[in-house]
Write a structure and sequence with these properties.
nine-stranded mixed β-sheet, Lipocalin, single chain, globular, about 10% helix, disordered N terminus, 4 helices
């Protein structure tokens, strides 16, 4: 909690709003539209993603596998013949952070939304809600994300994902572009639609939808990735445990 307090995360109270913030949030906005992302007062009117945590609902069809370019298929076959052993404790990056199905938590603050996963020392995504362009961001494992509300849907646009971040079992090369639409379909259900574009790896955009269920009594629990990790996915991304006895 001390970390979250230091970041100023959480759902702000509308009593903190200034007159200018209230005017910016309400002036000219239709009654059914979600307020703009500026001002503390607007946060209290955003859809409630912040209560509890969201866990993936596995009662759904598995995501459609991506269609790879011929060059990417060849590289993946070469990698399968010489798989890397063990985990390296590197970040999953995007879109890898979405794939394992670990629980997610949302935190709202003025001008930003933070999405956290309790895997590997609390993976954190920072979604800037107070800007409409990416500018020239430095590459990062989770990329640079900007967001806005389209009615009750949170739309996130992510670029500048580091070249080392994996995509479909291969290093992404730094050209991945991700567009997400997240909305509540019920009081405790969340629909998460993703569209992933990378012309060097994907023959066509990779689109899939996941469903998450809210658990109001769950809390973020830190997990630590340690050297000697033996449960890394294999070259195809499938679960794998290395049972080879350690060298003496």
């Amino acid at each position: 909690m001390a970390l979250l307090a230091a970041l100023g995360l959480g759902l702000a109270r509308p009593t903190m709003a200034s007159g200018a913030d209230r005017a910016a949030a309400t002036a000219g906005a239709p009654s059914t539209a979600t307020p703009a992302a500026n001002g503390w007062y607007a946060l209290a009117r955003w859809p409630d993603f912040t209560t509890g945590m969201w866990a993936e609902n596995y009662n759904f069809k598995a995501p459609v596998k991506p269609q790879l370019t011929p060059q990417a298929q060849l590289l993946l076959q070469q990698k399968a013949r010489s798989p890397e052993g063990g985990g390296t404790c590197r970040p999953l990056g995007m879109p890898g952070m979405l794939m394992p199905g670990y629980p997610m938590a949302f935190f709202y603050t003025k001008g930003s939304i933070f999405i956290m996963s309790d895997m590997d020392d609390l993976l954190v995504r920072h979604v800037f809600m107070d800007r409409s362009e990416h500018g020239d961001p430095d590459p990062a494992w989770n990329g640079h994300s900007i967001g806005h509300w389209d009615g009750d849907s949170l739309v996130i646009d992510t670029v500048a994902i580091t070249a080392e971040a994996p995509l479909a079992g291969l290093p992404s090369g730094g050209k991945t572009h991700i567009i997400e639409h997240i909305r509540m379909t019920g009081p405790d259900t969340l629909e998460w639609r993703s569209r992933i574009i990378n012309p060097d790896i994907l023959a066509q955009p990779w689109e899939f939808t996941k469903t998450y269920v809210r658990h109001k009594d769950w809390e973020l629990q830190p997990a630590t990735c340690v050297e000697g990790n033996r449960d890394a996915p294999d070259a195809s991304g499938n679960p794998h445990v290395d049972l080879t006895p350690p060298k003496k």
